Hints:
The chain is 14% helix and 28% strand. By secondary structure, it is α+β, with helices and mostly antiparallel strands. It has one domain (2-468): Lipoprotein localisation LolA/LolB/LppX (outer membrane lipoprotein receptor (LolB), chain A), CATH 2.50.20.10. Strands 5, 6, 7, 8, 9, 10, 11, 12, 15, 16, 17, 18, 19 and 20 form a 14-stranded antiparallel beta sheet that branches. A two-stranded antiparallel sheet has the order 1-2. It has a two-stranded antiparallel sheet with strand order 3-4. A hairpin with a 4-residue loop joins strand 18 (402-413) and strand 19 (418-428).
Amino acid sequence: MLKRISVVGTAAALALAMSAVVQAKVPATEAAKLGTSAITPMGAQVPGNGKDVSTGLGIPAWSGGITRNEIPKSYTQAGQHHPDPFEADKVLFTITNQNQGQYADKLPAGVQAMLRTYPDTFKLNVYQSRRTTSAPDWVNKNTKDNAARTVLTDTGVENSFGGVPFPMLHGSNEEKAKQAIWNHVLRWRGVYVVRRASEVAVQRNGAYSLVTSQQEVYFKMHDPKLKPSDVSNIIFYYLSFVKAPARLAGGAVLVHESIDQKIQPRQAWGYNAGQRRVRLAPNLAYDTPIAAADGLRTADDTDMYNGAPDRYNWKLVHEKPVEMFIPYNNYKMDSPKLKYDQMLKAGHIDSDIQRWELHRVWVVEATLKEGERHIYERRTFYIDEDSWQIAVVDQYDRRGDLWRVSIAYIKNYYEVPTQWTALDAFHDLRARRYHVQYLDNEEPSILDFSQPVPDERYFHPAALRRRGT
């Protein structure tokens, strides 16, 4: 079986080499500008916006992000809940439904809708903007190399390894939009991570039931021990085992996530503990509803967006990043002092534990192609310029009405370092229900990046049954 998978990977690599390239690479002279006084290693503007950061309307210059020298001394070990390096920061002002008109040009449409939907409880506490994005030197080097070697194809990318594929957007408007989305999908998030966390669907009245699982992800295309030719069209292997409630315990999901999913579709398997059977899950893609999310999240909503981009037409809304209030440096959400009952309120996560800051974002719009099927007719993505992490997504139904809003509560896992999220929340504005992923406040540890990478056989479908019994 291992040999068969290897053959499939080789075939996919050959197919990738033959796929239609639709865009040229960035000239080496341009790529050399990355990591200078003008452009960060990830391709963002180094200078700020020239305004006073103490007003909440200033964006500072990027000065390296969080480095090991800035990790709080109270942080002692991998997997520990993160002490907040900005705990002393104060709320500078608050955006509510009553005053949101003053800031409309700096608020995603979905955030404006959240303020209108929950006028008495949802608000944005705005703090000083802190550009904390950082990555290891070898990731920054790979990102610079990618700028000069990675190309966009019809349905994927070629020659990207160990960093962001397109730190310098170039080409046509559509090509730039696709590059920005691929930068999110293929961004740096560590090499191997393990976490025990819960997800929950919060009902209109605030009631919820936790589903707890152990999740393990091996980001193969970011493994520094490999070469670009070793990736074989694989982004990562994902393994999740349900721990609670008892009626679901022992169930498992395994995913082999491919880069170009038209050449080699995502492979997914499910393990049913009651039947002790491993089954192929061929439809875990696009708008397939996720069972644990109670219908509030689709397969390609996960991580704000994932999977093949082929069902949509893509557009970069602005030629340059624009200033927007987005969730950032949300260390408070990671605190073990907070209980889930304190965090999960009717309609949304408690506004007083959310931190919002002004940052520059790329705005990308996806419109469903004629003849294609998806529950979302249109989606607008707000992508952090510094990290390429999608912060907010507006999702529209087939009538063109704003229906759902996804929010990623960004923070820096400074022990790695990598920019990721503390929590992801998926809101249905009509049903007034929402789904939250990655709750770990009541767990003894959070994401652990320190464990050794297991052999690839660990992520073989046959291993599901052995570990599920």
